[in-house]
Amino acid sequence: MNEPLTEEQIRVVVAAVLDAEAERRGKALDEVVIKAVATILTSFGMDEEDKAELRADFMHLRRWRKSVEQAQSFTFRAILGAIVTGLLGALWLGFKALVGK
Questions:
Q1: pLDDT in tens for each of the 101 residues of the chain?
Q2: Helix (H, G, I), strand (E, B), or coil: what is residue 36?
Q3: What are the distances in angstroms from CA 43 to CA 23, 64, 91?
Q4: By the 8 A CB rule, do 75 and 85 touch?
Q5: Are the C-beta atoms of residues 70 and 62 closer than 8 Å to each other?
Q6: Cα dihedral value 55, 61, 66, 67, nearest 10
Q7: According to the model, what pLDDT value does residue 57 have?
Q8: CB 48 within 8 A of CB 38
Q9: Is the CB of residue 8 less than 8 Å from the CB of residue 16?
Q10: Do 41 and 54 form a contact (C-beta atoms < 8 A)?
């Protein structure tokens, strides 16, 4: 006579089935994504086989982006420094005018 499955045995079977299905779908999805990326790169005039050139382009873009971010940071600091210096100078002149009278 077959005994009914315990809740733990059912969980193990369901998990195994879900894992197998996820693996099957994952492989199909990976293939679709690879084809889509290759199509997009080709439409932009980039050869998918020239990975070294593409990587160099992305590295250049990253260096350029980081340099722009650094320049923005320096610009913000310079503007903030000028504002603070101007305010301190105005306060100092006001203090000198009050003390001088």
A1: 567 778 888 888 888 888 888 877 777 777 888 888 888 888 877 776 787 888 888 899 999 999 999 999 999 999 999 999 999 999 999 999 998 86
A2: helix
A3: 30, 24, 61
A4: no
A5: no
A6: 130
A7: 87
A8: yes
A9: no
A10: yes
Cβ contact 48:41 at 8 Å: yes
How many other C-beta atoms are found inside a 10 Å radius of the C-beta of residue 38?
Answer: 14
Map tokens 């940071």 to a residue. 73
Tokens of 17: 């089935």
Query: What kind and span of H or E run contains 66?
Result: helix 51-100
Q: What residue has token string 């020239």?
A: 50
- The two structure tokens encoding residue 84: 């603070």
Radius of gyration of the chain (CA): 32
CB 48 within 8 A of CB 42: yes
Which residues are CB-neighbours of 41 under 8 A, at least 6 positions away? 47, 48, 54
Around 93, how many Cα atoms within 13 Å sit in the side-chain half-sphere?
6
